[in-house]
């Protein structure tokens, strides 16, 4: 445990002097509690902050970081709190830096196909604003209606469309960052190419709020997609569905925008949650495949090829959704799986493993063997097109907490070792936070961790910015 100072009334007054009294929460247990957790289902990962500050400018954040270094008070950046690894949880108390007031889209630069945004903009709102300009931002996390772009950059969020467009980092060209010691620095900018120095923009991407606080983000954009369609491929077995994924892309010779996998339990949970009739009640698994292209004809050609491969791989039915209403209905089910499964039990672990796509069938076979061995309910869904699977490990209600607490770490360890043995790793997009920190040495070597420690110590000598996350300094 680091030697941080508990906050005093004097510190709270100083904080109020920086951001304004109305924008500080202090000694209000109910409001502080709201920033004690993210969406990680198990509340054992939660910790109470001592204060929450809602800054409006980079200058205010810089002043807070100077206060934090002078008084040795930990600071935890927070976006929408939709994270699934405890990244925004103030592990050592101190100040939560809530970035919700920094929510402006500052510029849509059509000529350069870029946008400059503040970190607290809700991800979905970026595309709403871009549509009239004929542009789009390809980030598509399933939480896009709530999460913030700043949180997406900090987690290097992936999502459904990463299979074609890649993850958040690919679209981040510039960042204004407040350093842990309170300087404001512009990294990168509107340049597509830049090798003048280390690539600090991409070092910041995915740093989970441990290396700097992003206050302005320059995003690269794409021309608005002209046509799209979704295929819903129904399978009698999980194995057939999963084996179809690499086949569709290689034999079909098409890279879809999304290939989402849903097993029967995940589908059922989401349909019940949304009061929808069960989608294809006999299905053991489904693939939701999105094709995007320059014209309706090109899209039709592509989904024909993919649909043929799905049928050849064992799909019993392939439905095409080529209008917005039907597509949205299917995607709504997919987007709500996570929420629906969270309601099954408070005692569950939400996993985010990733393997090379060709290894997905072996991964799923291994998961089923683990589920049998440990007697655990393990519904599974996720971004099969890029090898990133979300597995829920849910406690049997008949178990005691002691049995669960003993079994879960062992099952997780085996799951992560299985993933690593297939060339994968323990998180594809949800991050490490403090939830997975204990397992990082299973996949990163000591010299690798030492490089990360050197960077963290160099930038944050007092270890005040989001301490205790990702790895132990
Ligand atoms: C239903 C559901 C579906 C989801 N689906 C996906 C998905 O498909 N793909 C995916 O990748 N994730 C997904 N997530 C996880 C989550 O939405 C993402 O990790 C998201 O990027 C977090 O954004 P946030 O604004 O909520 O960040 P928070 O949870 O508030 O914070 C996340 C991390 O970012 C840091 N941070 C936040 N803002 C800043 C900033 N301005 N500067 C520096 N650090 C900052 C925090 O310190 C923390 O470490 C899902 C979550 C839910 C609940």
Could you characterize what this model shows?
This protein is α+β, with helices and mostly antiparallel strands. It is 34% helix and 20% strand. The protein has helices at 9-19, 29-33, 58-71, 123-130, 149-155, 162-165, 200-204, 238-251, 264-273, 296-312, 324-335, 337-342, 360-374, 401-421, 446-459; strands spanning 24-26, 51-53, 75-78, 95-98, 105-109, 114-117, 135-136, 172-178, 184-188, 213-220, 222-223, 227-235, 258-263, 285-293, 317-321, 348-354, 380-383, 388-394. Strands 15-12-14-13-17-18-16 form a 7-stranded antiparallel sheet, sandwiched between helices. Strand 17 and strand 18 form a beta hairpin. The longest helix has 21 residues, at 401-421. It is globular and about 70 Å long. The model has no long low-confidence stretch (mean pLDDT 95). Bound molecules: flavin-adenine dinucleotide. Flavin-adenine dinucleotide (FAD) binds next to strand 3, helix 5, strand 10 and helix 12.
- Helix/strand class: alpha+beta
Helical residue percent band? 25-40%
Beta-strand percent range: 15-25%
Number of helices: 15
Q: Which compounds are bound in this model?
A: flavin-adenine dinucleotide
Question: Going across the major beta sheet, what is the strand order?
Answer: 15-12-14-13-17-18-16
Give me the Rg, rounded: 22 Å
State the distance separating the first and last CA atoms.
Answer: 11 Å
| Beta strand count | 18
């Amino acid at each position: 445990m680091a030697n941080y100072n508990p906050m005093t009334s004097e510190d709270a007054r100083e904080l109020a002097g920086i951001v304004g009294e109305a924008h500080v929460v202090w000694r209000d247990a109910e409001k502080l509690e709201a920033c004690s957790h993210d969406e990680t289902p198990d509340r054992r990962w939660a910790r109470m902050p001592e204060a929450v500050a809602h800054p409006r400018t980079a200058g205010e954040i810089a002043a807070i970081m100077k206060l934090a270094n002078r008084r040795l008070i930990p600071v935890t950046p927070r976006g929408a709190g939709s994270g699934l690894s405890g990244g925004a949880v103030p592990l050592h108390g101190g100040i939560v830096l809530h970035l919700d007031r920094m929510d402006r889209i500052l510029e849509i630069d059509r000529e350069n196909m870029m946008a400059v945004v503040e970190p607290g903009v809700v991800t979905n709102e970026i595309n709403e604003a871009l549509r009239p300009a004929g542009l789009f931002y390809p980030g598509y996390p399933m939480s896009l209606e709530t999460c913030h772009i700043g949180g997406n950059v900090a987690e290097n969020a992936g999502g459904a469309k990463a299979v074609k467009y890649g993850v958040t980092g690919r679209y981040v060209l510039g960042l204004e960052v407040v350093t842990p010691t309170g300087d404001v620095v512009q990294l990168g900018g509107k340049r597509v190419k830049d090798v003048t120095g280390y690539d600090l923009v991409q070092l910041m991407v995915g740093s989970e709020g441990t290396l700097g606080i992003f206050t302005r983000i320059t995003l690269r954009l794409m021309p608005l997609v002209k046509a799209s369609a979704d295929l819903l491929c129904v399978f009698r077995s999980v194995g057939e569905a999963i084996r179809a994924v690499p086949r569709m892309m290689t034999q079909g010779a098409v890279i879809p925008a999304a290939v989402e996998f849903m097993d029967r339990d995940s589908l059922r949970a989401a349909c019940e949650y949304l009061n929808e009739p069960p989608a294809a009640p006999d299905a053991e698994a489904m693939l939701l495949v999105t094709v995007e292209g320059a014209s309706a004809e090109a899209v039709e050609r592509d989904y024909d090829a993919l649909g043929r491969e799905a049928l050849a791989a064992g799909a019993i039915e392939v439905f095409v959704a080529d209008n917005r209403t039907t597509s949205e209905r299917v995607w709504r089910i997919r987007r709500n799986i996570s929420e629906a499964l969270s309601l099954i039990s408070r005692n569950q672990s939400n996993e985010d493993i990733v393997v090379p796509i060709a290894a997905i069938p072996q991964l799923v076979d291994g998961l089923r063997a683990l589920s049998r061995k440990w007697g655990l309910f393990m519904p599974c869904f996720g971004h099969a097109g890029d090898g990133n699977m979300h597995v829920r490990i849910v406690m049997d209600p008949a178990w005691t907490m002691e049995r669960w607490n003993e079994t879960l770490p062992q099952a997780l360890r085996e799951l992560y070792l299985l993933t690593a043995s297939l060339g994968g790793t323990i998180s594809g997009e949800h991050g490490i936070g403090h939830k997975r920190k204990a397992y990082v040495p299973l996949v990163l070597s000591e010299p690798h961790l030492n490089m990360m420690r050197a960077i963290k110590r160099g930038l944050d000598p007092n270890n005040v910015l989001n301490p205790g996350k990702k790895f132990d300094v």
